[in-house]
Amino acid sequence: MAINGNTGLVLEGGGQRGVFTIGVLDYMMDAGLTFSYGIGVSAGACHGMSFVSGQRGRARKCAIDILKYYKYVGLKHLWHTHAILDQELLYDRLPNELIPFDYEAAFSSPMRFEMVTTNCLTGRAEYLTETSSRERVLAICKASSSLPFVSPICPVDDTPMLDGGIVDPIPTERALQQGCQRLVVVLTHEHGYRDGKDIKVPRFIYKNYPRLRVVLSRMRRVYNEKIALVERLEESGIALCIRPERAVEVDRLETNTNKLRTLYEAGYATAQQVLTSDAARPYLSALDKD
Questions:
Q1: What is the pTM of this model?
Q2: Integer Cα distance of 74 and 84 in angstroms
């Protein structure tokens, strides 16, 4: 089974809900599925890089298995480092020492993979890729996953960045602009999910970044508009969505490994079901349709 070369891969974020995405990507690797283009946001960007490098199981080890030994989520990190996550562990020790990331495989991959960040100066999305610098690719991953309010601003190319999900949480439009004719979209909420109402960010927060305050104050509305667009693309046959079948019991900062494993297994099973269904046939190569 092979994906049509005109089909792109879009990965939503969602913090620890992204273990659903890990299950999906592990199934894709088991099935030998490859894409010429992909784009990921936040957790989707980080997990997507292990897909690009072809390291089946690595993302699961990083997100779930290490919780037995390293408590990388917690208020103690926020107190000491101003980040709710142990960023040194996630973006240095893990990829460079504990669960090594295969930089060479990723950099030589034929798949072009973009990661979304939010430019704090302009309040606009940046779509970044890297195929040679280890330090820069980690900086992009870190910036794309730096949640507002609970993570420090992360510089990339001397530009202050935060989580790409602030302004483009499901970057289907970007993928279509890059020439994709169809999309496989991995979501981390069930069908019909909508976020709550926006809350205006006061001036004393991010006081040096007025454009960032503007986009943060309409972040939920943007998300709801993006998910509505995904549903229209799905109805028109442009997007094939892989999403949880029911409301997810895992929150963005979940540490319960049993819940995380259950969600991972749901991602794997759902991907297998969707990608082997008749609905997937338009997204496959001509050879696989015969």
A1: 0.95
A2: 6
